[in-house]
Amino acid sequence: MFEPHVDALMPKFTFPGRYESLAQIAALVRQATQELGLSSLDAYTVEMAVDEACSNIIEHAYGGEGRGEIELEYMIEANSLIIRLRDHGKPFDPKKVRPPRRDAPLKKRRNHGLGLYFIYQWMDEVHFDFSEGTNTLTMIKRKK
Amino acid sequence: MEIEHTAYKRCDLIKVKGRLDSASAPDFEEKLKQITNSGRYRIVLDMEDLQFISSAGLRALISTQKICRRYNRGEVVLANVPENIKAALDLAGFTTLFKLYPDVVSAVANV
C-alpha cells in the first residue's frame, strides 16, 4: 500500500468543518500549487479535488456543519505536491461509492458520487486510511 | 459568490461570479428555482467571471436542467465558460447535457 514519507516539517492547518471554510482552504491550496509551479488547469484540478474531499468530510464523515475539524497538511517533494486531509468523523468505504454514469441521459443522472470521481480522476495518487477514529486522505499531484 | 439576474422577454440571464461550492450552491439553486417557479424555463448562465465550480454547483445545474427541459418547455444553456471549468464539465459528462456558447449574445439568441 502506498504511504508517502511525511515528516514533522509538513505545515499543518486546521479549519472548522463548515462550508464557509472551503474558500480559505482553496486559497491555501492555490498557494501550494503556485509553490510547485503547476499549470493553471493542474492547479484547478487540485483545488477541486481538495474542495470535493472537504465537502465530503463535512457532509458524510461529520454528517453536517460544525461537528468537527478538518486538518490539512501539504508538502512539496521533488516534482510532487502531497496533500493530506484528516478528520475524526465516520469512516466510509470508497469502493462502495458507485462512479457516476457520465453517458447517462439527463433523467438518469444521479446526484452523488461525482465528488469522489473527480478526486480519483484528477489526482495522480489517492490513498484512504481509516484507523483509530481518524480518517486520512492522502493525494498526490505531480508536475508534468 | 455573486449573482446578477437580468430578465429578458425571451429568457433569463444569470451572471454568476466567484466560487460556486458547497457554501454557495444552495443560494444559487434557490435563485434558479425562483425563476423556474415563476414559469420561466429558458435560462442563460454567463460563466465569464465564475472562478470555480464544484460538484455541488454541478448538481444545481443538473437539477435545474431537469426542470427546464420537462415537456420541452425550455433549457439551461452556458455562455463564456472558462477553460478550467470546461474541463470539469467534460470530465463530469456535462457537455452533452448543456449547450455551450462563446458569448452571451449568441446564447440569448439561441436558447
How is this structure best described in words?
Chain A has 144 residues and is α+β, with helices and mostly antiparallel strands. Chain A contains three helices and five strands; from the N terminus they run βααββαββ. In chain A, strands 1-2-3-5-4 form a five-stranded antiparallel beta sheet. Chain A starts with 11 loop residues before the first strand and ends with a strand. Chain B is of the alpha/beta class. Chain B has a single domain (2-106), classed as 2-Layer Sandwich (Transcription Regulator spoIIAA). In chain B, strands 1, 2, 3, 4, 5 and 6 form a six-stranded mixed beta sheet that branches.
What's the topology here?
The complex is a heterodimer of chains A (144) and B (111).
Chain A: E1 12-16, H1 22-36, H2 40-61, E2 69-77, E3 80-87, H3 114-122, E4 125-131, E5 134-142
Antiparallel strand pairs in A: 1-2, 2-3, 3-5, 4-5
Chain B: E1 2-7, E2 12-20, H1 25-37, E3 42-46, E4 50-53, H2 55-69, E5 75-79, H3 83-91, E6 99-101, H4 104-110
Parallel strand pairs in B: 2-3, 2-4, 3-5, 5-6
Antiparallel strand pairs in B: 1-2
Helix pairs in contact in B: 1-2
